[in-house]
Amino acid sequence: MFMSEIKDLQPAAIWRNFYALTQIPRPSGHLEKIQNFLLDFAKKAGVEATKDVAGNIIMRKPASPGYENRKTVVLQSHMDMVPQKTPESNHNFETDPIETYIKDGWVHAKGTTLGADNGLGVAAIMGVMEDKTLKHGPIEGLITADEETGMFGANDLPEGVLKADILMNLDSETWGKFVIGSAGGVDITATLEYQDAENDQETAVKVTLKGLRGGHSGLEIHEGRANANKEMVRLLHKAIATLGTRLASWHGGNMRNAIPFKAETVLALPKDKVEALKKLVDEQRAIIEDEYKTIEKGVELCAEEVEAPETLVPTEIQDNLVEAIYACHNGVTRMIPSYPDVVETSSNLAIIDIENGKAMIKILARSSREDMKEYVATQLQTCFNMAGMKVSLSGSYGGWDPNPDSEVLNMLMKIYKKQIGKDAIIQVDHAGLECSIILGKYPNLDVVSFGPNIRSPHTAGERCEVATAEPFWKLLTQALEEVPEK
């Protein structure tokens, strides 16, 4: 099936607009095209729209006749998408449209992330803004910039701009669940500059680990998926200890909030040790396959001889880095005691770049408790401090405290039960949502997050279930009609 077919799906208000979004490149950090597209869309739809100092797009639609006294609702999503692709893909996220297809009731992308996170939320906002038949009070649309790389749009959202009483965040990914709380997070970046050592080894081998599932470091961190950086360091530690190999470079992962599915290193060693290294690689691949046999199905760990690099990481620096990476915590720290099925605190060893006299390691730590967020951040900071690295914390955002007595939550629960015939689930998510940041600027907002089914976001396996888009749209539009009076 071909990409144009998603335009013909129902509800047309969502899928037509989502298709339009797939044609506009919008990876995090490269948003000028999508910002201009949204401003042009608003002009054609006849609604007010502005771009603020943070690059967010804010749309405003007046109330339908007779609904002027209803509370104002802000519909919120983010415009950027995570640029992940398969090793075989030649896709350029800054220039190429996303190619989509439909399989077994799910919309997929060809070899890349789909951008349903959070393009479907943006498409829903677009559908509301352009539909003249809907009944509703005053509506604002807040489409934020660069959520995936640090929630920069929400962090820099000016105070006093929004007039809303209710915030409906459309960035949740399980239909039938209303999210009323989420974890906070902080970025930990460890850096080190060093003087390269001259390469005194005879040959070099590139070791590549790929084919792992990767995934969303908030939504899927509890599933026990392999982290390419953590699996690579196990091999390197053995190779250094038993074969005396030397590290020339290491590149693993590319997104702070995605579990890394690929890592590659270049190792230098004597010619007579190459076969022993290849055997060690085969043994480690068998270990990974056995340890993750119910989780990872496509593990590839291979070694190939390459041209010897001119320089290496100095021995002492190499050993300190490898040991710190080995010791670095990754994965779940603990679950929420009162919600034992929900992760409370975790960390993701997301990115490693070591080459040409510079080492950089990025980790995203999350927790729904500020004290535990501080604990895990300090744990990681001290780990890399001991390796002689400079460690900085940035992009910190607080958790979103649940409000089970929310008026808008109770309204949505009633509409859902009437439309679907059963109760929805109320949930607290480990994934970070912009709600907590927006609440920090607008503390009186009544907030709930919901959306259609999206699976494997932040990976090339990202997909959206077609059958959940229509009930999501019906719930959203009915809720706008039933918003209470001021």
Automatic annotation (TrEMBL):
Cofactor(s) for this UniProt protein: Co(2+); Zn(2+)
Cellular component terms per the entry's GO annotation: cytosol
Record GO terms (molecular function): metal ion binding; metallodipeptidase activity
Entry keyword set: Cobalt, Hydrolase, Metal-binding, Metalloprotease, Protease, Zinc
SUPFAM superfamilies in UniProt: Zn-dependent exopeptidases
Domain Peptidase M20 dimerisation: 208-294
EC number: 3.4.13.18
Class in the EC hierarchy, top level: hydrolase
Entry keyword annotation includes Metal-binding: yes
Catalytic activity: Hydrolysis of dipeptides, preferentially hydrophobic dipeptides including prolyl amino acids
GO biological process: proteolysis
Family, as annotated: Belongs to the peptidase M20C family.
Protein name: Cytosol non-specific dipeptidase
Taxonomic lineage: Bacteria, Pseudomonadati, Bacteroidota, Bacteroidia, Bacteroidales
